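hiii, so i know i said id send this last week but things got crazy w the move. better late than never?? heres the sequnce for the chain we talked about at the cafe, plus the structure i predicted for it. fair warning i was half asleep when i ran it
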Amino acid sequence: MFSRIVCAILAVVLASAAAPVFAGPQVWTSNGPSEQVLAVALNPDDENALLASGASGVWQTSDGGGSWTKVSSTLLGESLAYNPLDPAVAYANSKDHKQVFKSTDGGATWTSVFSLPSAGQVLSVLPDPMQAGRVFASGSGSDDLAMVQRSLDSGATWSNVLPASLNGAGGLSTPVATPLAARQGSALIVAGVTYYHSGGVVGSTDGGGTWNLLYNDSFTPLAGASALSAGNSLYAGLNVLEFGSLVRSDNDGASWVDLSPQLPITGTNGGFVQAIATDASAPATVYIAEWDTATPPRTGVFGSSNRGVSWTELGHLEPRVSGPDGLVWAVASQTLHAATESGVYEYTFGTPPPSK
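okay and structure toks below
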């Protein structure tokens, strides 16, 4: 009897070792890539298909993170996105922040479709979910002022559409437009901005033709934007050095609520808001990744089911999450994917996290 029990236990252990380890409730698991990952993107037509921007190239999974295959040696940066209207197409910034790369074969090959000279940087790239061929890229231009470039022909040509009134001219540091976000089923496009001693959120509802300042740093003086999400509510993470803050708008930027006092990582060592993800199927649910400069540093991914009023840590993820495109949410599998300094991690649960 004892020998049969031992054999059964060994069989389970060996089967577990041979199979990929998938995320389970309250557990973060990783099956690669075994290197730093700067961004992760979810295929809008197939939640099992993801791309990852790794330290040595582009990685792909077709089984929801169960295994990863390197498909390209192209070095991409911290922004990576599938085209929601044509998932065979993906866009990313380059690791050196000088180019926009485009793939038309699901990530296997990449071509530069926009580049900057020695001055300027490309920090975020976003294909418009409402209009085929329309793509945005944010950062700073060759004039060292904040820019939002727009292409209306899938990257063939580009023009800067951020007006002079919002480009941050006149400061002592280089202003930038940072993360970009769009709401599915809506014309709203938003971009974070960082100016000299200030920051905020700008937005457009006409395909990038005109832009307005939606958030003017009123709750978060001196802070520049680092992370954005345009789900049912708008969320913006803003930071001064390592000291983070979080604001929310439930009316497309007309008014804002300061969520900073409720942030789960805060204090004298900071609490940088690195990435934000929302769940389209659960309007009040939001996820954030934070870190600080304590020794050892505090890190974690947290969920809220009440629009950021209170937070619950999701297990404990020790590696620091990348940003701004470091968190993506898969609705059907109820899985959160996180790009980190040690690979891509997954966390799966059946219901939104409880609030405390």
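btw The radius of gyration is 20 Å. thought thatd interest u
miss u guys!!
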